Amino acid sequence: MSQELSAQLLDEIIGAHQNSPSAVIAILQDIQERYHYIPKAAFAPLAHRVGVSEASIYSVVTFYENFSLEPKGRFIFKVCDGTACHVRKSTPILERLRKELSLASDEVTTADLNFTVETVSCLGACGLAPVLTVNDKVYPAMTPSKVSTLLAELKEELSHETN
Amino acid sequence: MTKGVMTIDGVTVEIGEERNVLELIRKTGVELPTFCYHSELSIYGGCRMCIVEDDRGGLIPSCSEEPRDGLVIKTNTQRLRRYRRNILELLLANHCRDCTVCGRSGACRLQDLARSFNIANIRFINTALNPKTDLSSKCVSKDLNKCILCGDCVRVCNEIQQVGAIDFANRGSKMRVSTSFDAPISESSCVGCGQCAAVCPTGAIIVKNDISDVWRELDKKDTLVTVQVAPAVRVALGQAFGLADGENSMGLIVAALRRLGFDRVFDTATAADLTVREESREFAQSLLSLRSMPLFTSCCPAWINFVEKHYPQLTPHVSTCRSPMQMFASVIGEEYKNCGQRHVHVAVMPCTAKKFEAAREEFKTNGEPNVHYVLTTQELIQMIQQAGVIWEDLEAEGVDTPFSVLSGAGVIFGVTGGVTEAVLRELADDRSSTGLKKIAFVGVRGQEGLKEAKVTVGGRELAIAVVSGLGNARNLIKELLKGSRKYDFVEVMACPGGCVCGAGQPVASLPHRAARGQGLYAADRLSSVKRSEENPLMAILYNGVLKDRAHELLHVHYPGHEAGSSI
Amino acid sequence: MRLTSRADLQQARRFYARALAQQTTKILVCAGTGCIAGGALGIRDHLVELLTAKGQKVAVTLTEEPHGQEISVKSSGCHGFCEMGPLVRIEPSGYLYIKVKPEDCEEIVEETVINGRHIPRLAYSFNDKIFPKQDEIPFYQQQTRLVLEHCGQIDATSVKEYLGLGGYSAFEKALFDLSPDDIIKELSDSGLRGRGGGGFPAGKKWAEVQRQKAKPKYVVCNGDEGDPGAFMDRSVMEGDPHRMLEGMLISGIACDASEAYIYVRAEYPMAVNRLKLAIEEATERGLLGDNILGSNFSFRIKINRGAGAFVCGEGSALTSSIEGKRGMPRVKPPRTAEKGLFNQPTVLNNVETFANVPEIINKGAKWHRSFGTSNSAGTKAFALTGNIRNTGLIEVPMGSTLRTIIYDIGGGIPDGKDFKAVQIGGPSGGCLTKEHLDLPLDFDSLKKVGAMIGSGGLVVMDSETCMVEVARFFMNFIQNESCGKCVPCREGTKRMLMILERIVTGRGVVRDLDLLLELADTISNTALCGLGKTAPNPVVSTIRHFRSEYEAHIVEKRCPGHVCAKMKRFSIEEDKCKGCSKCAQACPSAAISGKVKEPFFIDLDKCVRCGACINACKFQAIQESW
Fold first, then answer.
1. Structural domain boundaries, residue B539
2. Is B279 marked active-site?
3. Do C477 and C424 belong to one domain?
4. How many domains does chain B have?
5. How many other CB atoms sit within 10 Å of the CB of residue C365?
6. What is the ipTM of this complex?
7. Which is nearest to C314 in space by CA: C537, C536, C534, C530?
8. Which of B217, B279, B426, B491 is catalytic?
9. What Cα–Cα distance (Å) separates residue B351 from each residue in B500, C39, C338?
């Protein structure tokens, strides 16, 4: 999902927030919404327009869990590892997912940029534990085998997209 | 009206203007340990060493608590000692503990406290990250294994200098001090002012050390090593040998340098006279044309870097005068180019950015730098100590000919406002001694970050600003660009207080910094030649080596200088 | 339709009340996150389709024009009974259908909506008893829903329904009939304490902001519900957003603030959308904006989305995040009330606190004090999760006992297991055990036993839970979420986690417990912010109540909860082993040795507990035990 950063689009996003330094997080969220990560090329123009240093934008980006400096996959799995999900066995779900996608221990995104697997500390859907989301859609009461089925469906969907 | 009293360790203390309990505690003679507290920086509250106990057993971080009437505190209880020990132990568990080979050994606050708290055993495994030291910058190096994340460097870079080269990256136990995308410092927006190294309590950021290269040159038989010493060095170096801050020890420094093996010793103040003359002419010239921007001084290399990296559009408005160090290096280079030996020139400076300036392409002759090495005041102290020179046994000596005459105007370059004062002496209509005094009191002296003055020259009133500290410079530039302020001449020194407070100097607190400035003004008062143009050496130089070559040897064109002004 | 005066507002309320009354039959489909994940929206659409096909007059939203009688199908906020979703309730009969599937819709329309008959197979049953109506179900019967009053009762996306049920009348009263002092006095008298964790008296906080001379002042709503296992605030934001906005408006009047921010966790996209819609609708009606209802009072609300940092639930970290910076707490004093957002006086309360305000203004302090205990007035919403039969969202009077919540409301522990402990207050809280079952849950009694009410997450743990592993889990969470500013939290929690990891993997040593407690003492006394100070709580409270479990891990290398994989023991039964050596070949750590055709032997010091030998053995000779 990595794309060339469009200077015009960036301009629009920053302009929509009145070049305000207090809107840095909102601007970054908008950029990430569009590109699924924060392209490095966005830093210099953003720093210049809102009047904060690049180092301080880097500082903000790396503070918050949700920002990514790496391109993310077409489908983003967020496996909840909140307390409720944890006590209802969320770990095997995560393990199955990573294994089926052959992700090495330090990888979160597949090489083909189709899938990203992350954990979140709590999705606030504890009543449905264990849960995960795929691009913000919630899948309740998951099991390792349900994960396998879901993954197969998504792969199927991808094969239609590329055709 | 009295603000009341507090009881600190049983002693009743009257509350004065202190901003927080910590300052009051220190006023009572208790040096409470801290890592992250600096009176000039915002209060961070991260190290937690300054926590004290009130009479009900409550714990108060003294750096953030306002003094209030009736507060009863203890600063040294068993419980507090336990917490401080644990904090130190936690820091050390995560720290490179190769103290003996650390550039900050002996001057490290963590080392000092670990020793005074008698920490003999660390109950946790060492998890120092062991990333590579960033040696990319000519001025400072950064070793994260020694960083305790007190944030002093981040705050000085962002709050005081407003350079914004570094900030925290990541969070929690992965947090580190980083440039944007962890780029090498040399590729960041760092200007080399070195203030980060000056505030770092450990060896995480230290000034680059070039001593061994200089020793090597001194050892070579067929090499003539000349050295120039900047004005600010003489009022700070002595501190390391028991002199008071501000006490002028130039004569002893000259003697020490000769003992170390330097062949010729000169005073940069001599060249400051050249700078004054050149800069005055350029200023007078600039007044003739209609300019929207003032003429900015060019002596400070960190300021030049700041303009190039942060406000390149201002380059055409920066004086083309080389810094005194580089003017002198040109002249000395000419003097010794046919001396029959290889000539190496060293400069002792209060400054870290000078190391960068010395390496710039603009200041090379036939590929050789005009200044081969820059040593900071601290490095020279180290060399004197290394060589075992006993300071007390030294007797003051004078600098070498042919550059042994200087004016007081050149000496005061080392303090904020000094360059301006020297230039004004040169330009002012009133040539009397009362005229000199008038200039002194026009408002250019003092430690304030921004000073403004109005002076009449040739019947015209000129607006002048003197800024020290790059944060103050940035604020001023913003106003200039907005058009809300207008000046004819602006002096900028990157370090707050000017060169006497450079990052290459021994660390000093605010009152000591003021004393250093006073030391330079005192030297000026004692000098027989007050104005640069009255220095007899000037005539000799301008009729000799500089004849028809003044522009070539004394001016510089940085990228963008030719662009012309159109702001 | 913009309301420009008090009379306009009153008229609108009467108008929508009449419109609501004309909805003879109401079908409330739960559109909380849980039920939507279970397919609730498809069910809603299918119901509308079927009803329309049968020629019924169906309304999905409350219309502006006067209309005749109709059947309404509403997407409501969370009903709370998340375990049983998707939920559909039919009014006026009060029937609640659980785990509804699209194929059930036909029957629901035909039988219940048209013919008024109950469908027993879709009803909740417990111990063979069927409960047709929602309010008969024990889960609901024992609750007192004040803040969650509307959650599950009204269309969560409609300001019209909120107005129809008397919405914004407290705001009206505050704006026209009360002085700021009156409002603050009422709030102070009501005994409302902040529901975000600290329990600071809300009236006192407002009064402090009111006293400040600096302008502008801000109102900030903390919707950064980061405690894992808590979703009360989410349910309010999603299910009854206007109640919260009304509370914020009232605080604006009381403290003379006209700018407000709601900071919502990034993980709550639906809450963000519902709040956005609510703010839009309120602005369109003139309930937000300049010169509201013709008065001098102006109020605007902006939404800020979090970006994934638990620490932003801390007040000064939150305001710093709204300012576009790293969410690092700052030193106090000055307090947020004095110098908060943009260094200005700021009222900062959490979602549930603001949602409590309108009813206090409407019904009075005395009414509010009639719920709960003397020091903790009112009710508290809890998220009931973990190993419990009825997970979900509940609201009970302060001072209710754990027994009531776990057994009467929660239905006890499933799968025949025993109750072991409940973690209250998330990673900042502590655990409560059997001995605390009859302890009244309120701010002060919990503090006494080393726990805290926190934001209100209750995670129930059964007998097969390892408390050391639970402590490790929380410490891992805190360690990941520490902002890194102060040394005790940054370095101390890291060391505590390393020690706990050592213990759960069988490498613990006896002095580790003392070291844990010493670090805990240093951190809780010297950390910069509330989150750091409370970070050691889960460890301290599990050591206090389950010390023997720690000792079993450290001394006997045994996990009584049968959870820690490294504590598993493998052994070879001599009489079953044929000495084929297959197990030794499969062993990755060369822990199995022996002579061929004689029984083999496992060296537990070398064994990495992978279980490869079990799969390799053809004779079931290898036993796994704890």
1. 214-563
2. yes
3. no
4. 3
5. 19
6. 0.92
7. C530
8. B279
9. 9, 69, 42
- Of the residues B146, B175, B207, the one at which a domain ends: B207
From A46's Cα to the closest Cα of chain B, the distance in A is 13
Chain C nearest-CA residue for B174: C484
Q: Is residue C530 part of a domain?
A: yes
| Contact predicate B494/B470, CB 8 Å | yes
Q: Which residues of B fall within a CB distance of 8 Å from C483?
A: 171-172, 175
Quote the tokens at residue C611: 């279980």
B53 and B173 assigned to the same domain: no
| pLDDT on residue B565 | 39
- Kindly report whether the peptide bond that precedes residue C334 is cis, defined as omega within 30 degrees of 0: yes
The number of residues making up chain B comes to: 567
Pairing of strands B51-54, B59-61: antiparallel
- pLDDT at res. B564: 43
| Pair B350, B233: CB distance under 8 Å | yes
In chain A, residues with a C-beta closer than 8 Å to the C-beta of B188 are 55
Out of B217, B247, B335, B357, the active site residue is B357
Looking at beta carbons, which residues of chain B come within 8 Å of A40? Answer: 181
Q: Has residue C3 been placed in a domain?
A: no
Q: Of the residues B207, B232, B257, which one is the last residue of a structural domain?
A: B207
- Please report where in the chains the tokens 């995104």 appear, as a residue: A109
Residues B165 and B182 in one domain: yes
Which CATH number is C603's domain given? 3.30.70.20
Q: C65 falls in which pLDDT band (50, 70, 90)? A: low
- Are B518 and B441 part of one and the same domain? yes
Q: Are residues C398 and C343 in the same domain?
A: no
The reply to whether B504 and B375 lie within a common domain is yes
- The length of chain C, given as a count of residues: 626
Domains of chain A (ranges, CATH numbers): 7-63 (no CATH), 75-162 (3.40.30.10)
Q: What is the pLDDT of residue A163?
A: 57
pLDDT tens-digit series, residues A50-85: 999 999 999 999 999 999 999 988 899 999 888 778
Regarding whether B510 and B390 lie in a shared domain, the answer is yes
Question: Helix-strand-coil percent breakdown of chain B, rounded to 5?
Answer: 45, 15, 40
Active site residue B196: no
Chain A 90-119, residues with CB within 8 Å of chain C CB atoms: none
Closest approach of chain A CAs to the CA of B353, in angstroms?
21
Residues B391 and B475 in one domain: yes
Q: Are residues C301 and C389 in the same domain?
A: no
- Does C599 share its domain with C520? no
List CB contacts (< 8 A) between A24 and chain C: 324-325
Clarify whether B354 is annotated catalytic.
yes
Please tell me whether residues C302 and C419 are part of one structural domain: no
The span from the CA of B505 to the CA of C306, in Å, is: 45
Among C462, C484, C519, the domain-final residue is: C462
pTM equals 0.93
Domain that holds residue C73: 15-137
Within 10 angstroms of residue B221's Cβ, the number of other Cβ atoms is 5
As a whole number, mean pLDDT of residues C22-37 equals: 88
A53 and B160 Cβ atoms separated by less than 8 Å: no
If one counts the domains in chain C, the total is 5
**Nearest-angstrom CA–CA distance, C124 and C106:** 19
Q: Render pLDDT for C363-411 as a digit per residue (tens, 0 to 9).
A: 999 999 999 999 999 999 999 988 999 988 999 999 999 999 999 999 9
Q: Which residue of A has its CA nearest to C386?
A: A84
Tell me the average pLDDT across B47-54.
Answer: 97
Q: Most A CBs within 10 Å: which of C30, C220, C231, C474, as the mutation test of the A interface?
A: C231
CB–CB of A63 and B180 under 8 A? no
